[in-house]
Design goal:
With 719 residues, the protein is an alpha+beta fold. It is built from 14 helices and 24 strands. Helix 1 runs antiparallel to helix 8 (368-391).
Length: 719
């Protein structure tokens, strides 16, 4: 009989039988008790939720009243400061270096310094998504209307900048209570607007004097005026605006100061209980002759629309016209109250509270389903408590534990002895004794496990030997690669090689030739990677070094190497090679490309890329192939040439997209002013960053040459 069958019968007999009996006896009692308790508490829970709902609405109304007072005081203070500046003729700091306009913020070449980006400032797209923008908390933006007189604009800028210290102080004082999305002011003289935080994105046709906040505040007799939700011109956000006019003693208009609050900020100032999340509607409503008009609700935030027109306001209504009329009657007769209504076919309870002692109200609607869910949660909690009580029953638990201890005592000899032998053998293996074996004769799965364990040990020994051999091969191959770049007059050289296995098929080398200051740069890529590729790479390296100083031209040298390599290469195995010589005294570079990708050359002076390419076949394919040599004058100082293997541009990210040579060129362009080693590291880092979690599937090798002298241009070919 199998071990799992023995344990199943033993444990089922000892543990399950008494538990089944006691469970059946207690189940009916549990149901009766829990249902009765839930029924008794449902009414109490409903009363508690009702009280919490009323407190929530009153608290929200108090917060909105507080926000109104703080905001109106802020805009009124800004308007008073404008009146003082106008009366005293005070202007901003005469040392003010620059007045930045929206066009400056939008132009990367003219942006003010120190711009930042975070979630507090964003553009809201038509689909409701958000995109962060660059802005400054310290530098305001100035937006003159089209066609404004420059002299008038400058005078207004010098006057408006005097509000910046006050605006910053207000933002600092109210930051823990309110988040002002924008503080701004515009003068009636030229129509110039100043806004803080400073940011771009304003439409070209923007004229502050034509905006609802300016128009309404200018003709209002109130110290401060609230504007119905509008779409903010530069960001597309739906905002609530409070504005205050600044006037001279004779009543003429100086300008208007205003503050914007994101409408969602106003509606989300109170954290709702988790049980109500997603089942509550919060609205700001104004009673008008035609019925309740919704001034603010969460749905408006996604409406968007044209910045030239206000948001089209909805009217509050229920499924029944009689219920809506009844609610309006209650709101007119009492500053607070509640009413059960039906909305979208579902029962809701609506609670309202008057704001500011006026016809404005905050309405909080809670789905009746959410209140019932609280009582249901109580019932479920009762079930859970009773289940815990049953499972922790002391007498039954003690009996089960005693039986389990006795069963473990009598069964341990037959079960634990072979397991102990396996553990002892595993310990010997961990200590290095690869001859250890476990002897188990139980006739069940433990004996099968011991046999598999014993069969694993010789395979483990072989794996260790293979790993040690691969590590040695890796060390040997790594030692064949140059440890440092050569010193070549007029050149800064760096190289990198990263294998994806212990050994690889990529290869680079620097060979100093007999002629003074003449150096060969070699880079190659064998098909595949691993031991076979490493052996072919090593053979190619030996052949190249043996023929590098031959007096023959480069094509003849490559012909010899190819002839010999083709004899040793297996069918389907070949090697691409790029052989480049640098001759500073002659001022030229020569190269032969055996099927290898072209060297990428970047000239910063003209900001263009060229390639040192060839069209010959890889080594090891056709033993009698005639190779071709290409020459080019050494590029002007500062030029960068990059030789690489396809492990760079064929690297893929998790989405399957290749890195490509366009990204490589972008990295070269950005780093052209740095030394060769920095450029090489930047390329490797960018490939790794692009690949993210995708594994490296091919070897990566590159050589970077940066010229520091001997300018020249043009490419020619010889055979």
């Amino acid at each position: 009989m199998r071990l799992r069958h023995k344990l199943f019968i033993l444990l089922a007999t000892i543990a399950l039988l008494p538990l089944i009996v006691t469970g059946l006896l207690s189940r009916s009692n549990l149901r009766t008790c829990s249902i009765g308790l839930a029924s008794d508490t449902r009414e109490s829970v409903s009363q508690i939720v009702d009280q919490a709902r009323i407190r929530l609405v009153k608290q929200y109304a108090a917060i909105l009243d507080r926000d109104r007072v703080i905001t109106e005081s802020a805009v009124r203070a800004a308007a008073n400061e404008l009146e003082r500046i106008d009366a005293e003729g005070t202007t901003g700091d005469p040392q003010q270096p620059t007045f930045y306009t929206a066009a400056d913020f939008d132009d990367p070449a003219r942006r003010p310094p120190g711009l930042i980006s975070d979630e507090s400032q964003f553009v809201q797209n038509a689909d409701g998504s958000r995109a962060p923008i660059l802005y400054s908390n310290d530098i305001p933006v100035f937006v003159p209307p089209p066609g404004a007189d420059p002299a008038e604009v400058l005078a207004d800028q010098q006057m408006l900048v005097g509000l910046v210290p006050l605006m910053k102080a207000q933002r600092s004082e109210t930051g823990s209570i309110l988040r002002y999305r924008s503080q701004y002011a515009a003068l009636d003289n030229s129509g110039t607007l100043m806004s803080l935080p400073g940011k771009g994105g304003y439409p070209k046709a923007y004229d502050a004097r034509q905006r609802p906040w300016f128009i309404n505040a200018a003709k209002s007799e109130s110290p401060a005026t609230w504007i119905v939700p509008v779409v903010d011109a530069p960001t597309g956000q739906v905002r609530m605006t409070c504005a205050a006019p600044a006037r001279r003693d004779d009543g003429s208009l100086i300008g208007v100061a205003a503050v914007d609050l994101l409408m969602l900020d106003l509606l989300e100032e109170i954290d709702l209980p988790p049980a109500l999340a997603g089942r509550v509607q919060i609205m700001l409503v104004n009673l008008e002759d035609g019925g309740p008009v919704v001034l603010a609700k969460a749905d408006y935030a996604s409406k968007g629309g044209s910045w030239l027109a206000p948001i089209e306001l909805d009217r509050f209504s229920t499924d029944s016209e009689q219920e809506t009329d009844r609610l309006v009657e209650l709101m007119r007769s009492s500053p607070d109250g509640s009413l059960d209504v039906t909305m979208s076919g579902q029962p809701w309870i609506v609670t309202y509270q008057s704001l500011y002692g006026s016809d404005s109200f905050v309405i909080v609607g809670i789905a009746r389903e959410a209140i019932d869910a609280v009582a249901n949660n109580v019932q479920n909690e009762v079930y859970r408590v009773f289940n815990q009580t049953l499972t922790s029953n002391a007498s039954v638990g003690a009996a089960v534990v005693m039986i389990a201890i006795l069963a473990a005592f009598y069964g341990s000899k037959s079960v634990t002895r072979p397991i102990s032998k396996l553990a002892e053998t595993a310990t010997e293996l961990a200590e290095g004794n690869l001859e250890a074996r476990a002897e188990v004769n139980t006739g069940d799965e433990l004996e099968t496990l011991a046999d598999a364990f014993n069969d694993m040990v010789p395979k483990l020994k072989d794996q260790i030997h293979v790993r040690e051999s691969l590590q040695l091969a890796k060390e040997v191959q790594q030692n064949l690669l140059p440890q440092s770049p050569p010193s070549v007059p007029g050149f800064d050289i760096a190289a990198r090689s990263i294998y994806c296995d212990e050994t690889g098929g990529d290869y680079f080398d620097f060979i100093t030739l007999e002629q003074p200051s003449r150096c060969a740069v070699v880079i190659g890529d064998v098909t595949g990677h691993g031991i076979a590729a490493a052996l072919l790479m090593t053979t190619a390296r030996a052949l190249l070094r043996s023929h590098a100083d031959d007096p023959d031209a480069l094509p003849a040298i490559l012909h010899k190497v190819n002839h010999n390599l083709a004899r040793d290469a297996r069918p389907g195995q070949f090697m691409t090679l790029y052989f480049l010589t640098i001759e500073p005294e002659a001022g030229v570079m020569r190269w032969v490309s055996a099927g290898h990708d072209a060297a990428v050359v970047y000239r910063p002076g003209s900001d263009d890329f060229t390639e040192f390419a060839g069209n010959d076949i890889p080594l090891g394919v056709e033993p009698e192939w005639d190779f071709h040599e290409y020459t080019s004058p050494i590029p002007e100082p500062g030029a960068v040439a990059v030789l690489g293997t396809d492990g760079i541009w064929e690297a893929r990210n998790p989405e399957g997209e290749m890195y490509g040579k366009d990204r490589l060129r972008d990295v070269i362009r950005r780093g052209a002013g740095s030394d060769a080693d920095t450029i090489a590291q930047a390329i490797i880092s960018d490939v790794v960053r692009f690949r993210r979690s995708s594994p490296q599937t091919d070897d990566i090798t590159l050589v970077v040459l940066r010229t520091t002298g001997h300018p020249g241009s043009g490419v020619s070919q010889t055979t």
